[in-house]
Amino acid sequence: MGLSPKRKVIPRNAVRKAWQSNPHWIEAYGFSEYSLEAVFDDSDDVRICWCCGDQGYQEVAHIIPHSLGGAHAVENLFLLCAECHLASPDCYKSQYFVDYVNRNAGRSSRLMAEAFTRASGRLLEFLQQHPELSAAIADKQPSLITEDCLYRRTTTHGSSISLSTRLARAEMYVDELIEYAREHNLASTMSSDGCSGVTSGGG
């Protein structure tokens, strides 16, 4: 038995251009206003997931799987991040895919905002409990903890950085600040104690 011919790959930019040129597809399928905005805000530099709103990586997903009769054509393709692509339903009707996308519309943006709010709250609470460490944190924050540092302490699972890893980076950032402040305070205390010992010993 011969092998089935391979489907021609349709690139992301072709899918994006087609949907941006045919916004009525979004309404016809029943996608939410968020998806409409995501499609038109998208570009090859940004690569927005048209479902959750995560940025930086896209995969071409079939709305109706090809194996269930879905056309391998741009109007049956949607650009998703790896996590949404994996989680989205593979059913013979488009409504289940659409329902999933609408339920999770903007999820990444909401979760990132919640993560930053939670991390900021932790940092504020720490500073209220230890106001003497605010100067140390102010010195550390802009220069010594960089995005590159956080990237080196996390990794990918598969081909892209997961949303949960991005969320963890906000907590990691605050943990790094608090740890630095405590170590800085301990070093300052030991230095002060050492100076006091030298002074008293010299008397």
UniProtKB/TrEMBL annotation:
Name of the protein this chain belongs to: HNH nuclease domain-containing protein
A Pfam family assignment: HNH
Chain ranges of the HNH nuclease domain: 35-86
Taxonomic lineage: Bacteria, Pseudomonadati, Pseudomonadota, Gammaproteobacteria, Pseudomonadales
A GO molecular-function descriptor: zinc ion binding
Signal peptide interval: none
Entry-linked InterPro entries: HNH, HNH_nuc
Native source species: Pseudomonas cichorii
